[in-house]
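Predict structure. Chain length: 120.
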Amino acid sequence: MDNEQEQSTVPIFNHLDKIYTNINDALKMKHEPRYSSLKKRFQQLYGSAPQFYGRAPGRVNIIGEHIDYCGYSVLPAAIEQDFIMAYSIVEPDELGGDKIVLANIDSITYEKEELSTDPF
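Prediction complete.
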């Protein structure tokens, strides 16, 4: 593959104002505290700041998911709620890098879980 094909099609941003609309000072009042809390929790668990953050916006299907399963068209729409994730990549010999460690901000409701990267 050449370099053009290897490049990610996932957009990469360095500032929250590129992914969120700052209506009623939402960046300072809502979004920055969420990312700050996530970063703090990550640092508590792993001893360093995350290398990356991932975000998946929420969506609803206006016509309904049951239509989608039947192969018909649906009308998805983005909603304000989203999922954010902090992560770092480690070498397999560092800190158990041969596994994926999942931890939630809400550690009381959701216990930490470790998954193997072994496809078999």
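Summary: The mean pLDDT is 83.
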